[in-house]
Amino acid sequence: MYNQTAQRSRKYLYAVVAGGLETSYDALGINDSPVYSIPDRRVSAVVSDVSYERIRPERRYLAVHQRVLRRLMEETTPLPMSFGMIADGSNEIRKILSLNQEGFYEQLRRVEGKQEMGLRVVWDVENIFEFFVNVHPELRAARDRLREGQRAPTQEDKIELGRLFERTLDADRETYARRVEEIFSRHCREIKRNKCRNEHEVMNLACLVGRESGPEFEAIVLEAAKLFDNDFSFDYNGPWAPHNFIDLNLKL
After folding, report:
1. Number of neighbours of residue 199 by Cβ within 10 angstroms
2. Do 77 and 112 contact (CB within 8 A), yes or no?
3. pTM for the model
4. Model confidence over 84-119: pLDDT tens digits?
5. Which of 35, 45, 115, 41 shows the shortest CA–CA distance to 85?
6. Strand intervals (E) in the chain
7. Which residues contact 204 (CB under 8 A, 6 or more apart)?
């Protein structure tokens, strides 16, 4: 039998915040539904009502998730939850809060008064392999041996050249990341390296900084960029809730 009341009672979970007060945040949620908190002792879950059992990671929903987090960041540092967490009702939300009370509270204390900024550095070149061949004599020599040999290069020859390129790429990434982290470590509370998404990406850093550190972060990026030539492009983003700095195994 269709149970409309049960469907309306499902809760989409955006974040956990410090404090045990019931709070409303206007109609910012999925499908413009009101966002509010469900408290349990020292922490509260920020939720909105949904009728779905599951929600697809479509751009419009992802944007709403981030919109709610940004609203929370105006007055606190939220613990952002992974996209798509839906509980069957308020009791299940309270159970999640109860099971994870100490972990939530400890993580909230750890990131209190902080926010996340991102830094992405890329090789701003048209062909990354040819760029590396021109910069690294060892790679250029290996490439030339394949071209100038008496026989056509085998698949294994090409694979070995690819491996040499990957090793060289990773070595340069490590060198450049250390150079940038040396500057950023004097200003950031924590730094985390995220996986590079393509061959052109040099580094993708998440930086935990104070909530008032936006202008200062821009100055640090400019300082680091001075160590690199025009073959590199720097791009920073944020502020974000501290997604990359939450260390919690959620009990459900």
Report:
1. 13
2. yes
3. 0.87
4. 999 999 999 999 999 999 999 999 999 999 999 999
5. 45
6. 10-18, 35-40, 43-50, 79-80, 86-87, 114-123, 190-194, 201-210, 232-240
7. 118, 119, 120, 121, 193, 194, 195, 196, 197
